[in-house]
Design a protein that fits this description.
Pfam families: Rieske, VanA_C
Protein name: Aromatic ring-hydroxylating dioxygenase subunit alpha
InterPro entries: Cholesterol_7-desaturase (IPR050584), Rieske_2Fe-2S (IPR017941), Rieske_2Fe-2S_sf (IPR036922), VanA_C_cat (IPR044043)
Distance between the termini: 26 Å
GO molecular function: 2 iron, 2 sulfur cluster binding; dioxygenase activity; metal ion binding; monooxygenase activity; oxidoreductase activity, acting on paired donors, with incorporation or reduction of molecular oxygen
Shape: globular
Structural class: alpha+beta
Strand content: 25-35%
Number of helices: 5
CATH architecture of the largest domain: Alpha-Beta Complex
Keywords: 2Fe-2S, Dioxygenase, Iron, Iron-sulfur, Metal-binding, Oxidoreductase
Length: 347
């Protein structure tokens, strides 16, 4: 990918120096090569002989052919065009057509730091490319074994920032989702406040809690998350309120991958009961809610932000957009500063 040159272009494809969720872990099976576009990058995902996930640029360092069209050889990938073999660290280990050539032994393929958590594959998108990855901080609901969760994954034809706006907008639950099994109750008017946290901020109704979709929390811990809570009746099984951890990853400027972990703090027989109820009764209903969001976001015009008239319920949306825009500006300024000595040498 050619580096974005404007704040708007960088935001469209996602901030750098962040971890992004790429896909479900079970999408990448042993012995197979998976081609994905994420955050403006053309990626190859595969597992090595030990089962470790590998995320690399989908481009042979020889002539630029797609490695995803190559051959999985356990600890390396062989390009199908000329047989060049590249390992999981991006090192060219063999050039069968010209043994001993200078390409052999070179680390010539961009390789992204990768990890797997909570049923998903994550990768670090650094700027510069060799930037040391920050630790991948997970919300407690995904890191603590006391929590059980299911991952819902979808790809939507809308900018990824539309999903962030949607998640940080609790008030839409009382309107768009008013006919659903969990968000039919409560007021349709509210006053909100913002409360700062160590990792972001909470946007919450001042006069209603535990009735509807009443608050959202923005979390930035090396990856970007939204946490929210939906009240559940006793018929939905043990575990109290239903916590959702969401994140979004741009595919390109007009599409994104959306991840929603549905979580409850349960153990023992209660965990088994809740997991059974989820698969038997609740999952279909939750997909119906997500379908309402998908249809709304995909129908929005791409210039929706240009003609908005925002009000008090949109304070979190405004704050989050400003934070992302400011960070994009800092990243572009840092990139320009790194390039300045090179320009001076050439001059």
């Amino acid at each position: 990918m050619s580096a974005p040159r404007t704040v708007e272009a960088l935001i469209e494809l996602g901030l750098r120096n962040r971890w992004y969720a790429l896909c479900r872990s079970d999408r990448v099976r042993r012995g197979e090569l998976v081609r994905l576009d994420r955050a403006g990058e053309e990626l190859l995902l595969w597992r090595d002989a030990a089962g470790r996930i590998r995320v690399q640029e989908d481009r042979c360092p020889h002539r630029g052919a797609r490695l995803s069209r190559g051959v999985h050889m356990g600890d390396r990938i062989a390009c199908d065009y000329h047989g060049v073999q590249v390992d999981g660290e991006g090192v060219v280990v063999s050039v069968p057509g010209s043994p001993g050539c200078r390409l052999e032994g070179r680390r010539a393929l961009r390789t992204f730091p990768a990890a797997e958590h909570a049923g998903a594959v994550f990768a670090w998108f650094g700027d510069p490319e060799d930037a040391e990855p920050a630790p991948l901080g997970l919300p407690a609901q995904l890191a603590d074994d006391a929590w059980a969760h299911f991952l819902a994954y979808a790809e939507w034809a809308a900018p990824w920032t539309y999903s962030l706006d949607n998640l940080m907008d609790p008030m839409h639950g009382a309107f768009l989702h008013r006919q659903t099994h969990t968000m039919f109750a409560g007021k349709r008017e509210a006053v909100f406040q913002i409360r700062d946290t160590d990792t972001g901020f909470v946007f919450e109704k001042t006069d209603q809690r535990g009735v509807n979709f009443d608050w959202s929390e923005w979390i930035d811990t090396g990856a970007q998350w939204v946490r929210l809570e939906i009240p559940y009746p006793p018929t939905a099984g043990p575990g109290g309120p239903f916590t959702i951890i969401g994140t979004a990853t741009p595919i390109d400027a007009d599409r994104h991958a959306a991840f929603f972990w549905r979580c409850r703090k349960v153990s023992g027989w209660e965990r088994d009961t809740w997991r059974f109820l989820y698969k038997a009764r609740l999952e279909e209903r939750h997909w119906a809610v997500l379908e309402q969001d998908r249809a709304m976001l995909e129908a929005m015009p791409r210039d929706a932000w240009d003609r908005e008239n925002l009000y008090q319920h949109d304070l979190a949306v405004v704050r989050l957009r400003r934070m992302i825009r400011n960070e994009a500006g800092r990243q572009l300024a840092a990139r320009a500063e790194r390039a300045r000595p090179l320009r001076e040498v050439r001059a």
